[in-house]
Specification:
Largest sheet: 3 strands, mixed
Oligomer: single chain
Distance between the termini: 36 Å
């Protein structure tokens, strides 16, 4: 019984960073999204890309789907990370 409790605590602490992540800023509440999973259309060196607008187009490489979806949807809603530098928040490499 004790080992089950330890395993449960271990799994819960592994998820803590997910729940502690800050909520990304947004400047709109709704947007139409065109979404595709493919390699073409994603710039070299990028894992995924969002072309903001309405509709917003998101293209995610198959190798990182579904890990980077939240990151790109946040861009469609207006989130911009610092100085357009690479940022993997909400996108596990």
């Amino acid at each position: 019984m004790r080992s089950i409790c330890y395993l449960t605590l271990l799994f819960m602490t592994g998820c803590a960073s997910l729940f502690d992540a800050p909520v990304p800023y947004r400047d709109r509440d709704a947007v139409t999204i065109r979404f595709s999973v493919q390699d073409s259309g994603v710039p070299d060196g990028a894992l995924a890309v969002a072309y903001p607008g309405d509709p917003c187009t998101i293209i995610v490489r198959p190798s990182v789907y579904p890990a980077c979806v939240t990151h790109e949807v946040a861009h469609c809603l207006g989130w911009r990370h610092d100085n357009d530098k690479y940022n993997s928040m909400y996108c596990k490499d």
